[in-house]
Amino acid sequence: METNQAQTPQPVNKRFVWWLRTGWGLLAFAGFGYIPGGALLVLLTWQVTPGPYEIGQLYPYGSYLNAWQVTNGFAFAAFGLLFVTAVIAAAASKSRLLWLAALASFALMWFPHAYMGMAFFADDPTLLSLEMWATALPFILSWMLAAGLGFWLSWKDLHLHRNTPAHHSA
């Protein structure tokens, strides 16, 4: 016996939807990495230094290089906190504006690092000049791969949400 009850069309299977939700999780994970990463940069580079202090020479954090690294560590932690918050809000609201803001901020945060990396590689393809930082490359590349996959899957989720009948009737 047939029923004439209207059913909501299911455009994709549950496993695919899980992958799309995983995209948002990957993005949040990629952003969360900045928080302990920034804290670690602060802890590893802060050298308590007595005065007198002089701009360009000596700061409460150590030399000008230490001051630069410590302040970047705090900036990374702040960026991570804001990025994760934006991703969580974008996932909940399906906001393309928040998604685009997260993408733009991620690209702006990584641009100088990617540019430096390409310059180091062009200068020395063996990367021996990176010394201890070369050990971080597999982690960084995995991090970027997770973020890229997260952006792609979350974009697919936004596109799927935009094309669902429930979205058009709301």
Q: What tags apply to this protein structure?
A:
mainly alpha, two-stranded antiparallel sheet, 2 strands, globular
Structure notes:
- This protein is mostly helical and 170 residues long.
- The chain is built from 6 helices and 2 strands; from the N terminus they run H-H-E-E-H-H-H-H.
- Strands 1-2 form a two-stranded antiparallel sheet.
- A hairpin with a 2-residue loop joins strand 1 (58-59) and strand 2 (62-63).
- The model has no long low-confidence stretch (mean pLDDT 83).
Low-pLDDT runs of 5+ residues are: none
Terminal residue distance: 33 Å
What's the arrangement of strands in the largest beta sheet? 1-2
- SSE order, one letter for each helix or strand: HHEEHHHH
Write the layout of secondary structure elements.
Layout lengths: L13 H19 L1 H12 L12 E2 L2 E2 H30 L2 H28 L13 H26 L2 H5 L1
Antiparallel strand pairs: 1-2
Helix pairs in contact: 1-3, 1-5, 2-3, 3-4
Short description:
71% of the residues lie in helices and 2% in strands. It has 170 residues and is mostly helical.
